[in-house]
Structure formats: structure tokens, C-alpha cells
Amino acid sequence: MPGSEKHDTHHKALSINLEESIFGSFAEIGAGQEVARWFFRVGGASGTVAKTISAYDKEVSDDLYGAGTRYVSKPRLQAMLDNEWAQLLSQLHASRGATTKFFSFVDTVSARNYAGTNECHGWVGLRFQLQPGGEPNDVILHVNLRDNSNLRQQEAVGILGVNLLYAVHHSHGTPEELLAEIFEDLGPHRMEIDSVDLSGPLFKTWDHGKIHAYLVAGNYAEAVVFPAGEELLPPGELLHKRALVFAPARLENVDHLHENLIRETLAQLPQEELKETRGGLGLFGLAVAGATENGATTPVEDIVRSVAALQKLGYGVMLFRAQELYTMSAYANRYTKSRIHFAIGLAALVRVFQDRYKELAGSVLEGVSRLFTQNVRLSVYPASAQDVQKMTASTGLTPWRWKETNGMVYADDLQPAEPLNHLYQYLLGNQFILPVRPAASTSAT
Questions:
Q1: 307 and 191, same structural domain?
Q2: Mind listing the pLDDT tens digit for each residue in 142-197?
Q3: What pLDDT, on a 0 to 100 scale, did the predictor assign at position 252?
Q4: Is-contact 168 176, C-beta < 8 A?
Q5: What pairing do the DSSP bridges indicate for beta strands 191-199 and 137-145?
Q6: Residue 338 in contact with residue 242, Cβ under 8 Å?
Q7: Can you give the pLDDT at residue 394?
Q8: Residues 201, 83 share a domain
Q9: Residue 208 · residue 232 · CB < 8 Å
Q10: Mean pLDDT confidence for 33-49
């Protein structure tokens, strides 16, 4: 079917039902039979559906797929995928294998509960053949459900599943093409895809790092994480109940960052902040949006190179779509209620107060309040007086007054113009802004 022609979910499900060579099974846990329902609804399901199952009860699920894993997790999904695929082939390969492209679709999803207190997310997997008897390929996705109602979230899962099954057979020329098809008729306000795991001969030459970065650059996720020395995983699994230190960066200043920003800030975290957490975690926070002029898209290759450069400093990297600190902290607050420390230099501190926050009705006052009402602290590292002098000319620091302390300028040596200085001094006095003193200082602008 022409790649440029867009079809709705009904048409996609029906076209699969009418394609005689595609045949397989559906196993769905949690949100119900949302994907399988589409293929029954449009008619002709006998041409596609070998079996559909909803192992909703935990004991039933454990009996089918084994105990010992969380029910909404990648290990559980992998167990489902292996079990369903083995069963499908054992039952049908002998009779249909020569003419059939088999598939097994599985998902395990936590949609919004009655009280609205749970994390709404899920794992979605598809194992499929591109030709009868061919080696199988796997697509495994982690998704966050962003709709406010259970019904809408179930609907989104159904659309995603149909899109995925359609995409692997009709739109798999490039990662960009595949993701665009999978996400059609959805959007970041309804769903995020923050982890993609691809395996099999179809994806042998695809670069997983670039695909991971493209989830943010292509507007499929608000953020993804590149852990230090670990396999790629959803941000929530890394951030969950951690006391966090972020060293924010932009693509143009990656070369100026130093690992001491994170290491020394982690060392200063009060022990009371670490209680009832899984410990401290330090990450560089790399913002993609706004990195190029004239609305140009940042090349994914540049993003991946910047991530690799930061990882060499010994810490993982959170890749964010937006560059404002309050958006970074709001995202992290999905997964932790512990305090978030931003390890920044003076230039980043000044940007917090000089940004016009055009997207916010309350301008700078709203931007600052959104940041500091999220249990955030700014650990601000000093800069040399010489560097501050250069910064004055290049970043619009002119309205600010500053003084030197032994050739260095600290956060409490700065004074913005009135009346903003009243707010600034309040934040200093109440230790929302923490000047890092000589005993643990790293020059950073």
C-alpha cells in the first residue's frame, strides 16, 4: 500500500483481516482486549485471529507465564511473547507454516484505576514473520498513557496495537517511517513511547542509540534516558524513588561540562534527603529543543554524539524535549517525590531569572514559582571574575550587579535589578538557591 496514503484504524485492521497470509494470536493483560477487539469489530477476524486471551487474574497469569516478575514489566512481557509464540507454532506451523506469516501480539498495561492513583503505563510487544517460515522479528515498546480517563487510555492502546501490526508489514523501511506509522492518530498528549527494543533480521542494521534519541527529537516522548554503562530502559525504572541531581546542558555547551558538578553535588546531599529513597542518582540533563535556529531540527547524529561525550564523564544522560528547568523537574516528579538538585553554573542561574517564559501567562514569576514549588534546589557553582566579565557581554548580564570574592563570583555575590532582586534574595535566604563554596567548588559558567 502506498506509504504516503494515510488510513484510519478501522481500515488498517480490516486490511490485515483480509490479507490471507497474516495470522496470529493476541494476549493482553490489564487494560483488556483493546487490540484484539478492533479485529473483531471490523469484520473478517477469522482471517487473522488464531486465539485471543486476557490473563487478567494474577494466578491465571502466573500459571501461564510464570511467577516472580512484576505484572507490568519487560520480563513479564518477554515471558508472554515467548510462551504465545511457542504455542502458536506448535499448533499451526505444520498445517499453515508454508503459506502463513505468523505473529504474536502481547501487552501488559496498567490503565487508570478508579481512584486515579496508579502509574498509567504499559509494555507492548509483537513477534512477527515477514515471509512464511522466516526468522521472527521483535518490537517491544514501553508506553506512558497520558489521557485522563480509563476509557480513553484503553482506546489509545487499541489504536497503538493496530498501528504496530500494520506498520511492521507496510511501513518498515526506516525507523522514522515505522515510528510515524505506529504513532498515527495518537500524539504526545495521549501517549508517549519512551523505550523501543528491536531485534531480528529486519532491524539488524538499525542503530538503537539513534532510535532512542529520535523518540525525543521526533516528539514521541518528553524524555528518554541513556544510563551510564547500562542497557537502554524507560526513565521511570531508573528515576523511581531516587534523590536526583541533574546537571543541565544544551548541545552547544556539552564540551564545557565537568563531572564534578554531579559528583560534588551528590556528596553534599543531606542524609535526611536520602532516607526513604533508593539512594542518590546523578545525571546530565541534555535539552534538545531550542538547540538550532530558525526552527531547524537537530540532527539525531549530533544528539547521539553529545550523549556519548557526556557518558564518558561517568554519568548517564536524560534527554529532554524542553530546556526549562521546571519542565525537567516536573517530568522527574512523575517518578520520585524526593528532592531534585540542579547542579548549575552562574550562566544557567541567570537564565532562570532572565527567561521571559513566553509560554506562561505569569512570565518569569510563574516560571520561577513552577520550579521551586517542585521540591527543587539549585546548587550553583561559582565562576572566575574574568569569566563573569565575558558572560556580562555575551548573555545580557548587564542589569545584574556582582562582586568578587577572592577572584571568584558566587551565587550570593550576584544581585539582579530591582524589583527582581527581592525575589532573588528571598530564594537565597530560604536556601532554594545554594551557593557552592570553596570547599567543594568547581568553576562552571
A1: no
A2: 999 999 999 999 999 999 999 999 999 999 999 999 999 999 999 889 999 999 99
A3: 74
A4: no
A5: antiparallel
A6: yes
A7: 67
A8: yes
A9: yes
A10: 95
Domain membership of residue 57 as a residue range: 9-206
Number of structural domains found in the chain: 2
pTM for the whole thing? 0.90
> Are the C-beta atoms of residues 219 and 188 closer than 8 Å to each other?
yes
Whether residue 335 is found in the same domain as residue 246: yes
3-state secondary structure the chain: CCCCCCCCHHHHHHHHHHCCCEEEEEEEECCCCHHHHHHHHCCCHHHCEEEEECCCCHHHHHHHHCCCCCCCCHHHHHHHHHHHHHHHHHHHHHHHCCCCEEEEEEEEEECCCCCCCCCCEEEEEEEECCCCCCCCEEEEEEEEECCCCHHHHHHHHHHHHHHHHHHHHHCCCCHHHHHHHHCCCCCCCCEEEEEEEEECHHHCCCCHHHHHHHHHHCCCCCEEEECCCCCCECHHHHHCCCEEEEEEEEHHHHHHCCCHHHHHHHHCCCHHHHCCCCCEEEEEEEECCCCCCCCCCCCHHHHHHHHHHHHCCCCEEEEECCCCHHHHHHHHCCCCCCCEEEEECHHHHHHHHHCCCCCCCCHHHHHHHHHHCCCEEEEECCEEHHHHHHHHHHHCCCCCEECCECCEECHHHEECCCCHHHHHHHHHHCCCEEECCHHHCCCCC
Residue 116 lies in a domain: yes
